[in-house]
């Protein structure tokens, strides 16, 4: 449990970006989908967090799509979580 808390805190810090919109997208997924995700999806999310903010913004707002199929998958999951969450 302690390790889980440390991991979530680390991810929450990584979700803090320079744009409010990105913070909202990433934190909503972290709060609503990450814990239930399988290891592959969690790894994709971590990879996504390593991407540049302008790319993340374009992808998450639907202005562009990632060329990498794995990133495309996690972006789609995050977009759905944003739509389905209150």
Structure notes:
The protein has helices at residues 2-15, 20-32, 39-49, 53-60, 69-84. It is mostly helical and 86 residues long. Helix 2 (20-32) packs across helix 5. The termini are far apart.
Low-confidence stretches: none
Number of helices: 5
Identify the overall geometry: globular
Q: Percentage of helical residues?
A: over 70%
Task: Characterize the main sheet.
Answer: none
The first-to-last residue Cα distance is 27 Å
Mean pLDDT: 93
Sketch the topology as an H/E string, one letter per element.
HHHHH
Number of strands: 0
Give Rg in angstroms: 12 Å
Structural class: mainly alpha
Q: What is the strand content?
A: under 5%
Short description:
By secondary structure, the protein is mostly helical. Helix content is 72%, strand content 0%.
Write the layout of secondary structure elements.
Elements: H1 2-15, H2 20-32, H3 39-49, H4 53-60, H5 69-84
Helix pairs in contact: 1-2, 2-5, 3-5
Entry keywords:
single chain, 86 residues, mainly alpha, globular
């Amino acid at each position: 449990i302690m390790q889980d808390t440390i991991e979530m805190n680390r991810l929450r810090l990584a979700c803090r970006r320079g744009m409010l919109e990105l913070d909202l997208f990433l934190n909503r997924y972290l709060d609503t989908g990450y814990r239930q995700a399988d290891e592959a999806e969690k790894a994709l999310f971590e990879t996504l967090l390593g991407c540049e903010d302008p790319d993340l913004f374009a992808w998450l707002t639907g202005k562009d799509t990632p060329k990498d199929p794995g990133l495309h998958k996690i972006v789609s999951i995050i977009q759905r979580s944003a739509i389905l969450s209150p």
